[in-house]
Amino acid sequence: MKKLDTTYLGLKLKNPIVVASSGLTNSVDKIKDLEKAGAAAVVLKSLFEEQINGEVTHLISKDPQNSYPEAEDYIHNYTRQNTVTEHLELLRKVKAEVSIPVIASINAVSANEWTSFAKDFEQAGADALELNIFYVPTGRNEKPGEIEQLYIDVLKKVKAEVSIPVSVKIGFYFTNLIAFAERLMANGAAAVTMFNRFYEPDINVEKLALSASEVFSSPADIRRSLRWVGLVSAALPNLEIAASTGVHDGEAVIKQLLAGAKVVQVCSAIYINGAQVIDGMTKELEKFMRKWNFNSIEDFRGRLSYAKIEDPQMYERAQFMKYFSNKG
């Protein structure tokens, strides 16, 4: 039996497979089933700042009397407190029922005072905290530096509240992703998750209406994260990486570990094929390790990162024509 155990955010994991924050992790029973299926840890379904603010707006719009400042403040505080209380209760129940680490999650779009609830998650038993931040700039006067600073401000506020490890789940829309990841590390992030997957719009030409695009990732989406896992892990070896997006089988797990990831986060594959895919992933990982005589994951982690391969330009190539011109 090969050693599949690893560490992430200071937590001891039996294997590198973590179930991502989603509807898969929004109940005690679901998480118990994931533990039985072989998941090494789970990221609890996110507490959404945007959703809380949306509920407040909806309640106020239903009754004109709620337009008074005092009423608005009451509704906002009640809705926020009620939502957080339910989230904390779920966290406590999960911690009482499972033995695997449970990582709490906050989906943030601002650095408002509600980030202080992170302390409540720590007190409720969260083993670590993942900040799932995704901001869509819609104003032409917004500067790139201001947007990056938003992420840093959220992280710093949360770090001021908690002592448990904090990771930041980010997208890939940054001018210099390596430099940004380094800023996150410098401001207290123990890890980054690359990348978050959010609602993306599509257009229904039959109805002339905006609609949602496919919500699940595909195996091909691993190409989106693999490059950056290899680059960031090489440049910032002290920053742990959870690779997400496109992890649908054991081969994808192996690829991300070879690129330098500490763990992988799985979501769409479980929605599509059920929790049994986790067992398939671990068995494929063990088979790979036997083939190459690796006794532990550390024997090959990062073996094909940007810093380790003979031709690092393989990670740098951005244009197909550049690739084909070198093929003779």
Task: Describe what is shown at a glance.
With 328 residues, the protein is of the alpha/beta class.
Structural description of this entry:
The structure is a single chain. The chain is α/β, with parallel strands linked by helices and 328 residues long. The protein has one domain (6-325): Aldolase class I (TIM Barrel). It is built from twelve helices and 13 strands. The chain has helices at 28-37, 49-62, 69-97, 118-123, 144-159, 177-186, 222-235, 250-259, 268-273, 277-291, 313-316, 320-325, and strands at residues 6-8, 11-13, 17-19, 41-43, 47-48, 102-108, 128-133, 166-170, 191-194, 201-204, 209-212, 240-244, 263-266. Strand 7 (128-133), helix 5 and strand 8 form a beta-alpha-beta unit. Helix 8 crosses helix 10 (277-291). The termini are far apart.
